[in-house]
Amino acid sequence: MKSPDDVMTLTEHLGELRVRIIRSALAITIGAILIIAFYDHVLDFLTHPYIEICKQHPADFCGFDANASGSKSLYIFDPIDGLATRLRVASYGGLILAMPVVLWQIWRFIVPALHAKEKRYAIPFIGSSIFLFLLGGLLAYLTLGKAIEFLIAWSGSDVGALFQVSKYIRLVGLMVAAFGIGFQFPVLLVFLMLAGVITPQQLIKQWRYALIIIFIVAAVITPSGDPISLFALAVPMTFLYFVSYFLGLFLQRRKRRKEAAA
Q1: In the predicted model, is pLDDT for residue 24 greater than 70?
Q2: Are residues 192 and 168 in the same domain?
Q3: Could you give the number of structural domains in the chain?
Q4: For 193-250, what is each residue's pLDDT tens digit?
Q5: What range defines the domain where residue 13 resides?
Q6: Rounded CA gap, 54 and 17, in Å?
Q7: Are residues 124 and 239 both part of a single domain?
Q8: 87 and 14 within one domain
């Protein structure tokens, strides 16, 4: 199979890269505009776990009465804080909405350099990475309310809660990113097994040490530092660790059968 260098010059490569970048940037911009247009709905969605927790407690728990109509849950302490937060949410949301287009542009740029076998592996790796990242982000969103409840409860009985909107949005973004990255753990393990760096037998033999490492990593990458988020991330990572073992064992046996048949 010929490589792109056999048919394209460096200038043509750069031109192709420029086209892909422009299309990706245009998709992100359109997504950001949509987020700005529906910003209030997006903010309601992001604050929903926090509001639901506050509704289950007295008004002094969260610093406002969540059951009263028109009550404000988040505040700004800087004149430009509201605008900066809106633009930040629009940027992150635009990237998420444009992710299929961005990934497609990346794929179209690198696919000519891949052989048929590499293409066959690349598609499931990309698909599983996206799925696991979204699954991790969903789990972070679902456990966010309980994590905030724990943090408020443990701040002290004489401490009142008053959250800044930019700090809250940053916490949500970091939580989603931490869980999404943590859920990439099995993808890395399967890649290392396919590359021959590790074997399934090594994974099952060192599972006790792996559990310790998983809990340490989960404790480090969770931005809130609360035990609820720690276990919410560490337990699925442990499950995915053993899923990676069985998947690696299946791939190993299939490879051996092909070698024996050859």
Answers
A1: yes
A2: no
A3: 2
A4: 887 888 999 999 999 999 999 999 999 999 888 899 999 999 999 999 999 999 989 8
A5: 1-180
A6: 48
A7: no
A8: yes
CA 211, distance to chain mean position in Å, is 21
The predicted structure's pLDDT at residue 1: 42
Tell how strand 74-75 and strand 163-164 pair up: parallel
Q: Show the 3-state SS of the chain.
A: CCCHHHCCCHHHHHHHHHHHHHHHHHHHHHHHHHHHHCHHHHHHHHHHHHHHHHHCCCHHHHCCCCCCCCCCCEECCCCCHHHHHHHHHHHHHHHHHCHHHHHHHHHHHHHHHCCHHHHHHHHHHHHHHHHHHHHHHHHHHHHHHHHHHHHHHCCCCCCCCCEEHHHHHHHHHHHHHHHHHHCCHHHHHHHHHHCCCCCHHHHHHCHHHHHHHHHHHHHHHCCCCCHHHHHHHHHHHHHHHHHHHHHHHHHHHHHHHHHHHC
Q: In the structure, what pLDDT confidence band is assigned to residue 129 with cuts at 50, 70 and 90?
A: confident
